[in-house]
Amino acid sequence: MTKNILITGGAGFIGSNFINHILSVRDDFNIINLDKLTYAGNLENLKPSEGKKNYHFVKGDITNSELVDYIFNKYSIKYVINFAAESHVDRSILGSEVFYRTNVVGTSILLESARQYKVEKFLQISTDEVYGSLGSEGLFTENTPLSPNSPYSSSKAAADMAALSFYHTYGLPVVITRCSNNYGPLQFPEKLIPLMIINVLHNKKLPVYGDGLNVRDWIFVIDHNKAAELVFEIGEPGQVYNIGAGREMKNIEIIKLILKKLGKGEELIEYVKDRPGHDRRYAIDSSKIQSELGWKPTFEFEQAIDSTIEWYLGNKSWWERIISGEYQKYYELQYKNR
Q: Is a pLDDT exceeding 90 seen at residue 331?
């Protein structure tokens, strides 16, 4: 039986990779992609899916309750995967309103329509950043108290709590995934890895916050999406599943690795003033999804970072269009005089 699935934010980095993957392996999914096409949304990301009879794109905002209701009714939506989010911490520090509007209000509107139309599964895509910052040891588990430190992470924590409240109050079959830092093809250049790759290719300085020793747990986007697919299929309603590949690296280690792989020297590194509230370390315990659902990461970091760099080298026309215009204004605002 065909599943009518509303995927929000499907023109962004993770969402577009998910749609392209899922439509390459499933013909029993009818995908309706609702995306506002903000600066980070790009229909070019979805070229592999264009023209497929089981793929439909709708341009719109998840905070538009009338549009959301129309989509649920028109397409007989019975499943929701919510990728839609304002997701860049730096931008949330520059201005938080859009983060709360999209991530909290938008999610609540989706949940309300899902309740009214008796949706059979609602997958909320979240982040490990809701847990806050770790010390030098330990891992985030699903039972770690939420302690967000940025406007972005606080908005995602609020959305998670809203989703779980609909499970407990109305019995809406909600499940949540919280993933560590993603990387891979189609990632917007404001994020660490593509930012550094592109700056190196332009012989530009590489801005490193603080001492560069902040630690992140990295996962290739395809591994994340296969985990999300599995949670969507067999995850237990009311549960949270952490997703991570167990690859912790300091930011400066990532940057030096990119420099080495692209044959450039460390003189391009420029330490700049740290961002406010910069979490020191993230690290995910993904034993729950591995033991209960049978997922495990398949990509080694060394293999996946090579393929990511190769993708950016081979797709200059994609990112050259992106880093013109509005992005240059953001870059100037974010890094000038730091």
A: no
